[in-house]
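In the previous chapter we treated chains in isolation. Here, by contrast, the input contains two separate entities that must be folded as one system, with a combined length of 723 residues.
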Amino acid sequence: MPDTPPHLVQSVRHLTATTYVIRIDRHAFRAQAGQHVTLGPHRFAINREYSIYSAPDEPFLEFLIKARPGSESALALQRARTGDEVDLAGPYGEFLIAAPADRARRYLFVATGVGIAPFHSFVRHYPGIDYRLVHGVSRLEDRYDLADYERGRYVACVSRETGGDFAGRVTDYLREHPAEPDRLCYICGHSAMVANVYDLLREQGVPSDNLLTETFF
Amino acid sequence: MRIAISYPPIVNERGQVAMVSQNRNVQYFKIPTYLLPVVHAQAATWLRDLGCDVRWDDGNAQRKSFGDWYAGLLAWRPDIVVFESTTPVMTFYWRLVKRLKGDLPGTVVVMTGYHSMRRPEETLQACPADVVVQSNHVDFVLRKLVPFIAERADWRTACTIEGLCIRVDDQTLRATGAFKRVEDLNLSPDIDRDLVEWKRYAYENGNYLRTPGTYATSVIRDCTFGKCTFCRYNGPDLTFSVRSVERSLNEYQRLIEDYGVREIFDDSGVWYRGEQARAFARGLIDRGLHKRGCYFGFNTRFGYLDEETVALLSKANFRFVLVGLEAADAETLTRLNKGYLPHQARQNLELFTRYGLHPHLTIMVGYYWQTAEQLAGTVHTVRELMFKGLARTLQVTLCTPLDFTPYHRECLANGVLLTDDYDDFDMSKLIVKTPIPHEAYYRAIRDMYGVAVDPRFLLRQLGFLASGRVRDWEFLFRYGWRALRRVRNHLYNLTAHNEPTLSAPR
């Protein structure tokens, strides 16, 4: 295996007290929009899987991470400084917009929290894509990098504060605004949300072959 | 409806019986190892709860001959029979299904399992099975499919339950679309231990230090990581689903209090990590289950458990930690998509053993690219880890492409498979071209299993006695003898074959 130069931290951009975007050197690392990696501080015993937040053609790699209490790896990366080394493996996964013909389709993206990461990568990489992004967040501050989404395509479903585009969970929103059955639907977030949204979309007539899921853990 | 969930006794020419083993592999063993098929056991429970007459029909665990098992099944005259497929037993199943459909033409045969789910047409063309379940959520699919078959005479054309490939007639197969990958596992019932005769699986299992032991209803199906190329829990069609901590704790409590279980293993591809792992450990402690003489164990992967979590697990009386160390070189780990580096394996093992856990290493050899240097590195590392007490037990398998995993497809694409006879995929011999003679890999297996009788390993185990932990005394004086017997069994299984046609190096 050829030696690859170390991936060094370029910056850590803090979005909230617990959520941040870490940017690292890309070097020759190649991945498709929607894929994920395992990432951890260098020579650390722990790593975690993170979807890639940046686009495949950007000269760096970015990851959107929420550091929950007890999440040792995420907390350590949150404290990283410019020039610190990280360990990276991958890419993995098939949560992709693969076929060029599919890019002309209409998409529904459903995410909660940092599950928005692969959709951010899609939107950055396929600028002409016809999508609606339904994002479930607890608070208004969790609407990360709003400016990166085309006006009118991003819907924030805010469950614990007033404001945003819709008051309630993503499932509440989808009940009031059913998906068109011809949409290609991508769901990313925690297991229970993924299962609930899947059932809802099936009830609304979306065929199972048009549903892709990515589960966070 | 009368539903049989059936595991026929399958005996090879050496008198070994095909046992479902780790990761749903089938391996032939002389000394039995009975692993409860957890998802199928949940399916059986769920169908019984729906009012079906369910026959839990594990001919292996029930120690039946094939003839007795088959006669019993015919006499019971099931409406539906469910089998679990995997590559090395496919041709057996195809023959069996032909015979069964001849004897019971009205019985609907449902094939489940990772081989047929990825090649449904192959199975439906090779035998007269009626349905192939293409979902790993066998319980969720069957609880919808069985009532549908019961209610609708036109089920073959009318059924729209996703994740099925159905034989409509002699000429027509019908797929019902992609299945739901993420299910809420809290909806599937805990296994009914009496229905599946749990005690038949409670003793003959090398992973138990104390018996009776049992497998918990898995908290994760299939694997949270799911990227290792050789693993059947990997593929675009699969992801993982989760069961709640509370639900699982309730089951542990019942197993201990109502059934007297003394060791519980969760065979989830990878068990909880992070907050869920800590909550589970705290739950055991809060309920006092950590002081009830029962050990707990699970599968994990390097890089998943931090020190706070490991400390809590230790306090909660976890003991057995099964973890894959597929190789000791970075190239192989990268090619296998393991997602960890060699140094992390050592760091994690140091952490586990610091808190008194007993790591069990699962090692593989015989990758089609594996060089002498890489192989020697694995042997050296494994022996060193065992001598230093950083792992307590191990099992070594030949990496065998199975069930159209990414590794299997890679072997096919690269033309390195030495056979296309599924009977050869039973993990008893290498079936891929390799850069060095196959004998080198068999020798490596002997070298690694040889650790068990090496004075350095035995001395290390004696050294553990100073810790004063009961489990260390039990390990040496109770488990040790059983382990030696199993080491001989594994060595025989993995090295007895030496067929010249298959062992030619590239």
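Chain A touches chain B through 37 residues (CB under 8 Å). The two ends of chain A are 31 Å apart (CA to CA). Compare these points with the single-chain example from earlier in the chapter.
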